[in-house]
Design goal:
The complex is a heterodimer of chains A (about 475) and B (about 190). Among the domains of chain A are: about 55-250, no CATH class; about 330-425, no CATH class. Chain A has a two-stranded antiparallel sheet. Chain A has 22 helices and 2 strands. By secondary structure, chain A is mostly helical. Chain A has helices at about 5-20, 55-75, 80-95, 105-115, 125-140, 145, 150-155, 165-190, 195-200, 205, 210-225, 230-235, 240-245, 265-270, 280-285, 290-300, 320-350, 355-370, 375-385, 390-425, 445-450, 460-470; strands at about 275, 435. With about 190 residues, chain B is an alpha+beta fold. Chain B folds into 2 domains: about 1-40; about 45-180, no CATH class. Chain B has helices at about 5-40, 60-65, 135-145, 165-170; strands at about 45-50, 70-75, 110-115, 120-125, 150, 175-180. In chain B, strand 3 and strand 4 (about 120-125) form a beta hairpin. The longest helix of chain B is centred in the first third of the chain and has 35 residues, at about 5-40. Classes of the chains: A mainly alpha (about 475), B alpha+beta (about 190). Chains A and B meet through helix 1, helix 4, helix 5, helix 10 and helix 19 of A and helix 1, strand 4 and helix 3 of B.
């Protein structure tokens, strides 16, 4: 049973073989396992198990409890301190302890992949993480963002001097989130990439480890977030888009003090994310201070004409300009969708090339044709394993055709959203009071604490009321 | 203002709008659930490396979100030839056939070589020191039995929704496997 000589020869030629090794080998039973004369027992390969299933159950239970608590703190207690404390807890539990994975934002991709077919497994814990916060939004508004989401929490605690972003910029940047959502769905459905996870700015911080890119992105978001509150939530979060669709229909919504607004504007100025709408200019101009009056000019085109009914023509004194503007927008809408479709069609091949299988197919072809020198790890392994080229080509074609209709669909979606935003902007309803903009509000409860009607702010209420009566 | 007919009308409208949004949301949620129920499999899964697809490219050591990586070398001792001259242990041009660091392939000295009986040596992986670079794996696969290979260690893996190594793997050797069979171990009688 001695193979010493054979091994020595191997040793001699080894280095040469080693250098010439172009294709990987997976090993074969070259040397039979020894028959020991002593009673040596073979060590067993140690296999530490993954997290026990009860950890998943615990996570879902904590998520549900945190959502319930957030709803109570925001809607019943109206307590900023409570919400902040819950946010810190969620940051520690879901963020630093559980490593930020799985989260509802990323779960969009799991659900998409499962819906797209291809046998993608959707663990129950992931389905629960995706659905529970949406269910909570139907009931209570975006309370998940306020106290439960670790990404929201880490941004919320660093807000020190939030700057007011002009509304046109707020709205424009908000479009990025739709693009992000659309791209995430397209790439997940085609099995190409999980962009939400790949570009998650905070998961590296939660784990205290990650690539320089990941950690750098996190640092940029946190530093920027000191002055532009919650940049990810406002302008990128794809899950926030879903919630912004649902929040206006919530059964119980966070509201500005229901007792009697004295139009002090403190809540609006204190909201770091532009989520409080001011009363319409004509109603407000009579009793508010110049900053509010300045909006008279800004909204002059659309507002005075839109009556109680909202639609031009429903109210009194509808300007011809408004009607013409609305008609123009309704005409532009299909054009925007068509432009989106065209752009999507043009981009489809480029997007498809982000898929690994398509890349591999292209690279193999390029190598065969002599367009490129050498090979990649992927092509070398593909060739050495002798996998079927026709199967790969068929797979790549399937992916490309998925992009060929998915990409225009994404374009149409973006065009539609853009058109809807423009129309919505043009037909803003008349508003007499300061009101929380439900789609945008993340229920952080800052405005509650600023309100003169909030318990503990009585002195402020008296002061402000006096000031108003003097005016 | 609150009881003027106009305000009443507008709050009616608002109530209708809220109901509409809620209804649509519930409808969409229900449809999603229905589709998921028919299409998805609700299995718990974890990431694992298929050792027969691995090309020992070395990306596992650097692409993992953890540092050091959650990927480590494991050794199926039942497949091992217990060679005196282990090509997973020694550098191809090792000056001497003993455990000196200059002879070893492993950059961290994570393989322990012990004599069991002449001429058989046992090679154990010291997991704390292994960084998952696959140098030993490549050596063992090229000239040995292929008893050393990489596996994702579930005491370390944080189970990212999108495994960063899987994303970088040139052969899609990393895939999700059922959580109740979390390892893809090589066996003696397999190819």
């Amino acid at each position: 049973m001695r193979l010493g000589a054979g091994r020595l020869i191997l040793w001699a030629v080894g280095p040469a073989l080693w250098l010439g090794l172009a294709v990987p080998a997976w090993g074969t039973q070259r040397f039979p396992p020894p028959q020991f004369e002593t009673d040596h027992t073979l060590p067993v390969t140690h296999t530490p198990p993954p997290d026990a299933p009860w950890r998943d159950v615990l996570d879902v239970a904590v998520l549900a409890a945190a959502l319930g608590l957030a709803a109570w703190l925001v809607l019943a207690r109206r307590s900023r301190r409570g919400v902040l404390a819950l946010a810190v807890f969620s940051l520690v539990y879901f963020g630093f302890w559980r490593g930020g994975c799985v989260c509802p934002i990323g779960a969009i991709q799991n659900v998409t992949a499962a819906l797209a077919g291809g046998g993608h497994a959707l663990p129950l814990v992931v389905a629960a993480f995706f659905l529970l916060p949406l269910l909570a939004t139907i009931l209570f508004g975006r309370i998940f963002c306020a106290g439960v989401c670790p990404l929201g929490a880490i941004q919320d605690v660093v807000v020190i001097r939030p700057l007011r972003v002009p509304m046109w910029l707020e709205q424009s940047l908000g479009m990025l989130a739709y693009l992000y959502l659309g791209a995430a769905v397209l790439f997940a459905a085609t099995g190409s990439a999980w962009v939400i996870c790949e570009y998650d700015p905070f998961v590296g911080l939660f784990r205290m480890s990650g690539t320089m890119f990941m950690l750098g992105l996190g640092a940029v978001f946190l530093l920027g977030g000191m002055f532009l509150a919650r940049p990810y939530c406002r302008w990128l979060c794809p899950y926030g888009v879903l919630m912004s669709w649902i929040a206006p229909g919530a059964v119980w919504q966070p509201r500005i003090d229901p007792v009697g607004c004295i139009q002090c504007q403190l809540c609006r100025d204190g909201c770091p994310i532009n989520a409080i709408d001011a009363p319409d200019a004509p109603a407000a101009a009579a009793r508010t201070t110049p900053p509010a009056g300045a909006r008279l000019h800004q909204g002059a085109g659309a507002l005075p004409g839109a009556g109680a009914g909202g639609f031009p023509g429903a109210g009194v004194g509808v300007g011809r300009r408004d009607r013409r503007r609305m008609a123009g927008l309704l005409l532009i809408a299909p054009l925007l969708v068509a432009a989106g479709v065209l752009l999507g069609e043009r981009l489809a091949p480029t997007l498809a090339r982000m898929n690994e299988r398509v890349q591999l197919t292209d690279r193999l072809l390029a190598e065969d044709m002599g367009w490129v020198e050498g090979h990649t790890d992927a092509t070398a392994a593909f060739r050495s394993r002798g996998e079927s080229r026709t199967e790969l080509a068929a797979e790549a074609e399937r992916i490309e055709s998925a992009f060929a209709w998915g990409s225009p669909l994404l374009g149409a979606f973006i065009g539609l959203v853009l058109a809807a935003k423009l129309i919505q902007h043009a037909r803003r309803r008349r508003r007499d009071e300061f009101a929380i903009h439900q789609p945008r509000c993340v229920a952080c409860a800052r405005c509650f604490a600023l309100c003169p009607h909030h318990p503990g702010n009585e002195a402020m209420l008296i002061e402000l009321t006096r000031e108003k009566t003097r005016l | 203002m609150a009881d003027s007919p106009q305000a009443g009308q507008s709050s009616d409208r608002r109530g209708f709008f809220r109901g509409l949004v809620r209804g649509l949301a519930l409808l969409a949620g229900g449809a999603t659930l229905g589709l998921l129920a028919t299409r998805a499999q609700a299995a718990r899964t974890v990431w694992q490396i298929d050792p027969y697809k691995c090309t020992m490219c070395g990306r596992c050591a650097v692409e993992c979100v953890l540092s050091p990586s959650a990927v480590k070398c494991v050794h199926s001792h039942g497949m091992c030839g217990y060679c005196e001259l282990c090509t997973g242990f020694f550098e191809p041009d090792a000056p001497n056939l003993h455990e000196g660091a200059e002879n070893q392939l492993c950059p961290t000295g994570a393989i322990e070589r012990t004599l069991i009986e002449q001429p058989y040596f046992e090679y154990r992986i010291k997991e704390d020191e292994c960084i998952g670079c696959a140098k030993c794996v490549a050596g063992c696969a090229a000239f040995g039995n292929g008893s050393m290979y990489l596996q994702i260690r579930h005491d370390r893996c944080v189970d990212c929704n999108d495994c960063a190594i899987a994303r970088a793997c040139p052969t899609q050797a990393i895939r999700r496997v059922p959580a109740d069979q979390p390892y893809l171990l090589k066996q003696v009688d397999e190819p």
